[in-house]
Design brief:
The chain has 495 residues and is of the alpha/beta class. It folds into three domains: 4-40 and 69-78 and 228-311 and 440-489, FAD/NAD(P)-binding domain (3-Layer(bba) Sandwich), CATH 3.50.50; 106-186 and 195-219, no CATH class; 315-378 and 384-421. It contains 15 helices and 19 strands. The protein has helices spanning 12-24, 66-73, 102-112, 117-135, 149-158, 174-180, 187-200, 210-222, 232-244, 289-292, 295-298, 303-309, 386-407, 423-430, 474-489; strands at 4-8, 27-31, 43-46, 49-52, 58-59, 85-90, 95-99, 224-225, 248-250, 255-261, 264-269, 274-277, 279-282, 315-324, 335-339, 351-356, 369-378, 415-421, 461-463. The strands form five sheets. The protein has a seven-stranded mixed sheet with strand order 7-6-15-16-17-14-18, with helices on both faces. The chain has a five-stranded parallel sheet with strand order 9-2-1-13-19. The chain has a three-stranded antiparallel sheet with strand order 10-11-12, with no helix packed on it. A hairpin with a 2-residue loop joins β10 (255-261) and β11 (264-269). α6 crosses α8. The protein is globular and about 65 Å long.
């Protein structure tokens, strides 16, 4: 218990690791470069309006969900009622609703595509069965990819005969399963699925790992939640738990250098302060590592981590809007996934996610006003010069606002405040190089045993967050934080 831990970055992954290790009794210091907790699940204030920075939909809070188990370990229960209608999915040719109830959800699809009733029933039956099988492994939560005898032993002990049924799907894409069920040419159905996957897996059905796609398409049925105020509430609770258990939290501390000093690590912040610890946990984008580590240390990192550092990911354009809902026919729905075109790029404003506050959520805005966070995937090469940057901001923002106006006449007249968060803003406020967000696309070549481990390859140095197994999203980054906490403590901690 005399081991010290330094966590760099107070995103959900870093907060999970820090709060759990402090609860376990270790000496934990958490450094965060901004004045807010939560990273991409954080918030910011503009006058009387509060905006979630990025992530908005609460996940993993159902009984025995990943986040619920963390909060249970911290003795910080966070009860909420799940959404029965998770989101609306609007496409040029049709609109769907994502229902929590699986049978109701499938029945909706069958009604929309009656000539494909047998294929759709068989497809979803397989999806739900495979996802349920995978979830039995989320109880023990083995580390992937396993890299020590102990991790291999834990994985082996978690496996049961039923898991052999997953093996035929291991290297398959979702597209292959759509073909197997005769659904690959049903474009509207496939576009609806692609719109869901781009947010959760950062890719569409053509390349998505089938096992992760099955879990992603099913997980909303387990429970999705509106959190009053926003997901920053989860971050605040974990930050308070850290302090209550003797941990230290320092905001506005940007680590600029990380060095080995014998068997310990030493971090230096922008003010010249030094922090020594036996273990360091980096909850920062892995693309930042060349700025923190000397070349001699970078060369000792595990190969998948080194390769990941050199690999670009998606960036994003976000719109933050305050709307007078009294000027609309009806208040904005809480969550909407909108496909403006039938293109296959899954980016540049053709697909975007729109999250709105409840009109009575006074943590977000005065009564009758809804704050809206909109995000879309975009490629950094479309923003890498000044001229391209301004043109892309105008073009993509215009596409998004135009698509919303077509769907909700009078929307733009109801806007009280609008601000854009383009890639450079994300880089400035979150420290993410080029504004990279969301981690790597979860393709067969990047997922599961091909993912990046939380073990960096350097003794006492660990990584967590959306680039690390199992990937992006609140559930994913919390899982990476759990794996770090287990490795450092040597204990299972949550069950």
């Amino acid at each position: 218990m005399d081991q010290s831990v330094l966590v760099v970055g107070a995103g959900i992954g870093g907060l999970t690791a820090a709060s759990m290790l402090a609860k376990y009794g270790m000496d934990v210091t958490l450094l965060e470069s901004s004045s807010e907790l939560g990273g991409c699940a954080g918030k910011y204030q503009r006058n009387q309006y509060l905006f979630p920075v990025g992530a908005t939909l609460g996940m993993g809070l159902e009984e025995n969900g990943i986040v619920e188990r963390v909060f249970r370990y911290l003795e910080k229960p966070f009860p909420l009622e799940p959404l029965e209608t998770v989101m609306e999915m609007v496409h040029p040719e049709a609109a769907f609703k994502f229902f929590k109830d699986r049978e109701k959800h499938v029945s909706q699809m069958v009604r929309r595509f009656p000539e494909y009733e047998r294929q759709i029933q068989a497809f979803y039956s397989e999806i739900f069965s495979v996802a349920a099988n995978i979830r039995t492994l989320m109880g023990p939560l083995p580390t992937l990819p396993p890299s020590t005898p102990k991790e291999w032993a834990f994985l082996t002990a978690a496996l049961r005969p039923r898991h052999a049924k997953l093996l035929p799907f291991f290297n398959q894409t979702l597209e292959q399963r759509l073909k197997r069920h005769g659904l690959e040419q049903l474009q509207l159905f496939r576009q609806m699925i692609d719109a869901l996957l781009i947010d959760s897996l950062q890719t569409g059905s053509k390349d998505a790992s089938y096992l992760l796609a099955a879990l992603a398409l099913d997980i909303y049925h387990e429970g999705a939640y509106y959190i009053p105020g926003g997901l920053y509430q989860l971050a605040e609770i974990m930050g308070k738990s850290l302090a209550e258990n003797g941990g230290t939290l320092k905001k506005r501390r940007t680590v600029v250098k990380l060095q080995q000093q014998g068997s310990k690590w030493a971090a230096t912040d922008q003010r010249g302060n030094q922090y020594q610890a036996d273990h360091v946990v980096l909850n920062v984008p892995i693309h930042q590592l060349p700025e923190l580590l000397a070349p001699s240390l970078l060369n000792k990192l595990k190969k998948p981590l080194r390769e990941g550092i050199a690999t670009p990911t998606w960036t994003t354009l976000s719109l933050y809007i305050a709307v007078d809902s009294s000027k609309l026919e009806v208040p904005l729905p809480l969550f909407r996934q909108i496909a403006a075109k039938n293109g296959e790029g899954l980016a540049e404003g053709d697909y975007f996610f729109m999250s709105s506050s409840r009109p009575d959520d006074l943590l977000r805005a005065p009564a009758g006003i809804q704050t809206v966070t909109i995000s879309t995937h975009t490629r950094f090469e479309n923003w890498d010069t000044k001229d391209k940057y301004e043109a892309s901001r105008e073009t993509v923002s215009g596409r998004i606002l135009g698509a919303i106006e077509k769907l909700i006449p009078g929307f733009q007249e109801a806007i009280l405040y609008l601000e854009t968060g383009a890639p450079k803003a994300w880089e400035h406020y979150t420290g993410r190089p080029n504004g990279y967000v969301g981690g790597f696309p979860q393709t067969v070549n990047a997922a599961l045993f091909n993912a990046i481990s939380h073990r960096s390859g350097l003794p006492g140095l660990y990584v967590c967050g959306d680039h690390i197994f199992p990937g992006a999203g609140t559930i994913g980054v919390a899982t990476s934080g759990i794996h770090v906490a287990r490795t450092i403590s040597g204990k299972r901690l949550i069950y």
